[in-house]
Specification:
2 domains, 18-stranded mixed beta sheet, globular
């Protein structure tokens, strides 16, 4: 059985967010235990498992971190669409409903995801201590993401953050997003973010597509109602996500590069 490692939300190897992709040679998923073991062995933020189906979707798709299964994942969906190839829209049946991936002529792939609703919440002093940050605002995102999103004062505050990842591993949310407006209007992106998912077995995620389903409506509201934006996730690897807000749907556009193509023997 083939397994690929694909760098997503980048046009060059060793950047963006790497994901494992296993295209199953069957019409049903193997046991959850086996998929969890494979994801732990791959030890990337997510490994995607996909098999063909009939009906409203073309494939069934699930995502596993090294520790848990997640309900929504952007970069591993982008990586899966890249592996499947083709020039037609691909429909995925997932825990978050039907998701589509549309390839472009220029190598870009656009994902259609549900927009995450935002609910303002009071800052949690425990979380602020773990992050070492003082936010301007805090929102809960969900239900598919179940993250907390903190707006910080500026881009430098996001880039310079050094959270206590060991402490965050015990926090009850899937992840924590920190974000700020881009410092320079000519930077090529409108906002920056970082994502910490220690509770899901991911210390800092390099580029988190699903988080942008909340970042898109948030920054649209902050930036004059604009619906076409570019986010830069300022991790060590870094990556760009084009977002297009369409009401209750958000389109995420990026590129992907296969860096490893091998055989899964177990």
């Amino acid at each position: 059985m083939r397994i690929r490692i694909v760098d997503a939300f980048t046009d060059r190897p060793f950047a963006g967010n790497p994901a494992g992709v296993v295209v199953l040679d069957r019409t049903e998923f193997p046991s959850d235990e086996w998929m969890s073991r494979v994801a732990a062995e791959v030890n990337l933020s997510e490994t995607a498992f996909v098999h063909p189906v009939a009906g409203d979707a073309d494939y069934a798709l699930r995502w596993f971190t090294p520790a848990v299964e997640v309900a929504l994942c952007g970069h591993a969906t982008l990586a899966t669409a890249h592996v499947l190839g083709g020039s037609s829209v691909v429909r995925f049946d997932t825990r978050s409903g039907i998701l589509t991936a549309t390839p472009g002529d220029d190598g870009w792939i656009t994902l259609d995801f549900p927009t995450a609703p935002l609910t303002p919440v009071e800052p949690d002093p425990r979380l602020l201590d773990m992050l070492g940050a003082t936010p301007i605002s805090v929102h809960h995102t969900g239900p598919n993401t179940d993250d907390l999103m903190l707006e910080l004062v500026d881009e430098a505050a996001v880039r310079d953050l050094t959270p206590d990842l060991s402490a965050l591993a015990g926090y009850e949310r899937r992840g924590v997003v920190v974000t700020a407006r881009a410092d320079k209007p000519d930077a090529g992106y409108d906002f920056v973010s970082r994502f910490f998912g220690a509770a899901a077995g991911v210390g800092e995620d390099p580029v988190t597509g699903s988080a942008h389903t909340a970042l898109a409506p948030f920054w649209s509201g902050r930036l004059g109602g604009r619906t076409e934006l570019v986010g830069y996730q300022a991790s060590a690897r870094g990556g760009f996500v084009r977002v297009s807000l369409r009401g209750d749907r958000t389109r995420l556009t990026g590129k992907a590069v296969t860096v490893i193509d091998g055989e899964l023997l177990a």
